[in-house]
Amino acid sequence: MDKTFTKEQLAQFDGQNGAKAYVAIDGVVYDVSDVEAWQGGKHHGNTAGSDLTEVIDNQSPHKRSVLGKLNAVGKYIG
Fold first, then answer.
1. Residue 12: how many other CB atoms lie within 10 Å
2. DSSP tag of 14
3. pTM higher than the cut 0.70
4. Using one digit for the tens of pLDDT, what is the confidence trace for 51-76?
5. How would residue 29 be classed by pLDDT, with cut points 50, 70 and 90?
6. Torsion angle defined by CA atoms of residues 22, 69, 18 and 75, in that order, rounded to the nearest 10 degrees
7. Domain Cytochrome b5 heme-binding spans what residues (predicted)?
8. Are 57 and 32 in contact (CB under 8 A)?
């Protein structure tokens, strides 16, 4: 997992127009492209290509329980 993502680089992975959908949680970037709930790069008002650490900790009903099912693709350096 040597790849790193800046905020600008992560924003390119928004799940739109054929782009992969990535989200960052606690400095780890996860690929949510194949998650049905993330089709189109959006999930419950959140958009891919973003750091969603605060959202998953404070708003998500499943919290971090879903992270183990996702593929980590790199590190988020902001």
1. 12
2. B
3. yes
4. 999 999 999 888 999 999 999 999 99
5. very high
6. 30
7. 5-77
8. no
Q: Could you say which DSSP state residue 53 is in?
A: H
pLDDT score of 1:
58
User: Residue 7, Cβ neighbours under 10 Å: how many?
Assistant: 13
Which two structure tokens, joined as six digits, stand for 38? Answer: 């993330």
pLDDT above 80: residue 4 = yes
Residues 43, 33: Cα–Cα separation, whole Å: 11
Neighbours of 28 (CB within 10 A): 16
Residue type, 35: V
Rg (CA), the chain: 11
Angstrom CA distances, 36 to 24, 27, 54, 73, stand at: 18, 23, 22, 18
